[in-house]
Amino acid sequence: MEIHELSIQGIRQALVSGQYSSHEITGALLQRIAEENPRLNAFVTVTGELALAQAKVADSRRARGEQGPLLGVPVAHKDIFCTRGVRTTCASRMLENFVAPYDATVIRRLQESGMVMLGKLNMDEFAMGSSNETSHFGPVRNPWNPARVPGGSSGGSASALAARLVPAATGTDTGGSIRQPAAFCGVTGLKPTYGRVSRYGMIAFASSLDQGGPMARSAEDCALLMDAMAAHDPLDSTSHAQADGQFYAGLDRSLEGLRVGVPEEFFGEGLDPQVAEAVQSAIRQFEKMGARIRKVHLPNNVHAVSTYYVLAPAEASSNLARFDGVRYTRRASCPRDLTDLYTRSRYEGFGPEVRRRILVGTYVLSAGYYDAYYLQAQKVRSLIREDFRRAFAEVDVIVGPATPTTAFALGDKSNDPVAMYLADIYTIAVNLAGIPAISLPCGFDRSGMPVGMQIMGNYFADEQLLAIAHQYQLQTGWHLRSPGQQGRG
Amino acid sequence: MPMDSIEVNRIAHLARISVPEEEAQRTALQLESILQLVESLRAVPTEGVETMAHPLDLQQPLREDTVCPEEGREWLMASAPAAAEGLFLVPRVIE
After folding, report:
1. Interchain CB distance below 8 Å, B16 and A383
2. CB-based contact A434 B55, cutoff 8 Å
3. What pTM did the predictor assign?
4. Helix then strand then coil, % of chain A, to nearest 5
5. Minimal Cα distance from B47: which residue of A?
6. Cβ pair A383:B88 closer than 8 A
7. Could you confirm whether A22 is annotated as catalytic?
């Protein structure tokens, strides 16, 4: 097996056995990034020198007897996580020259575990998008078919993983931004329970929905990352006191007697029959492995997209007020006065989708509309959470498609914001409730594009979701397919 | 919800984002289509339903109010578009 094909677990074994050093692995991946990234555009910044220096440090730590599972394993970060001394752009012109004065907690924790940072990954601007087409640095391509989108907003992460440029990546998920690109690119990604992974240093989009999480090519690898990422953080006031867990150690768990709920609302109109077929077959696989399948209802899921497109823009309009052209962002040239400085800097710095969402958010929060939109959406959010409470009284987990279709073509929805929003119809309710969900490959459509399923769990069921996904991946091989093997039979 | 360029300009002013005249009409149409998407919410019966602002209804954690020295201004202000003598420069506000 070539170096770039190794999983986190595979790299770990190669480092332990002495087959490769971290420096060799890092060098091989940097070489591959240099060859493949120009056609994929998955990276915004490659930190080659820094990576090789970190790899050397990891190698000497290992030589001194340190044995952490992530020590010397390369990773790349979504460019939404602040990195001290390395620019953090959020894929926006507004931050194209921003160098954070501190590391995000996620960055710090993974660095302390000995991971080697290869660079910063492309994304939708400020994480607002489902196709990675809103990036100031241009769209990311799907390695399974470069005419298709990789999904978004963590599109660079998913594309880089699928193309075997990186074995591990970070992502963030506000309405599906880890799970939808994971599904479109055939990789595995966990959106953790709200509060398990620190948001400190993660540029805020919608604070009550944003959650960072791991992306990799298997649930096992995601579990290794979660062991390092999840922890209580006093620097994030929404961090949960019991955020940490035993993710990797909990993978060995039988599915015997597991109660799996299947929501009818996720298999209705708008679902591509080929996606439905692949997910149904995964559900039969769970049954074979001892799970008991039953129907559940999430009647308010139909309101999830609408609720989200009130609440997320409202929170965004408030969060993004900090980008003012004064303190650390790009400024418009020759401002007439302070108002002109603000308004033109924000017009020039933000792309059309970000401006649109700020305007929608400002509108629903403005005098006369607050009750009708914002308060009402917060009430419907309660109803959506209540749906999950009822369902989880009867079942342990809920399984359904991650997305209504496989990856669509570049340009397909970029001129129709509402059509783009509907791509997240199955992922949004999870963020509104704050529960965890994992997305993993479960088949391919006839055009050779990966299909992703989603397993949703109750609060703090992250360990259970990883274990179920891992057990599924022990029995199936969808997650092992790579774009390079396509057509080889 | 009908949206016109006057309404767009009102919102744009609140958001401190300029919307050039030639874009106002198109922006109005796009905002209208997004508001149409969320319009269905208004018909959902929610009498007696509590609002949900946050997933875990966490208590706001408190900590001791201790002094922690921050690093130098220079480093913190390194990304500022215009700064001098540890201050951010902006156009004259008071004549």
Report:
1. no
2. yes
3. 0.97
4. 45, 15, 40
5. A379
6. no
7. no
B 23-62 residues with CB < 8 A to A: 27, 30-31, 33-42, 44, 46, 49-56, 58, 60-61
A177 catalytically annotated: yes
What gap in Å lies between CA A458 and CA A398, rounded to an integer?
9
ipTM of this complex prediction, to 2 decimal places: 0.94
Which of the two residues, A203 and B3, has the higher pLDDT score? A203
Angle at which helices A304-319 and B21-39 cross, to 10°: 140
Euclidean distance between the first and final Cα of chain A, in Å? 18
Interchain pair B33, A360: CB under 8 A: no
* Residue of A193, A191, A274 whose CA lies nearest to A451: A274
Chain B CA closest to residue A327: B80
- In percent, how much of chain B has pLDDT > 90? 62
B91 contacts A336 by C-beta, under 8 angstroms: yes
pLDDT, position B1: 60
Cβ distance B82 to A331 less than 8 Å, yes or no, reads: yes
Query: Who's near A337: CB < 8 A, 6+ residues apart?
Result: B91, B92, B93
Cβ-based contacts of B39 with chain A (< 8 Å): 306
For residue A22, cis peptide bond before it (omega within 30 degrees of 0) = no
> Please, which pLDDT band fits residue B68 given cuts at 50, 70 and 90?
confident
Which residue ranges make up each domain of chain A? 3-256+465-483
Q: What is the CATH number of domain A3-256+465-483?
A: 3.90.1300.10
Residues of B within 8 A of A84 (CB-CB) are none
**In what helix (H) or strand (E) does residue A262 lie, and over which residues does it extend?**
strand A259-263
- Which stretches in chain A have pLDDT values below 70? 485-489
Residue A148 has phi, psi (to 5 degrees) of -100, 155
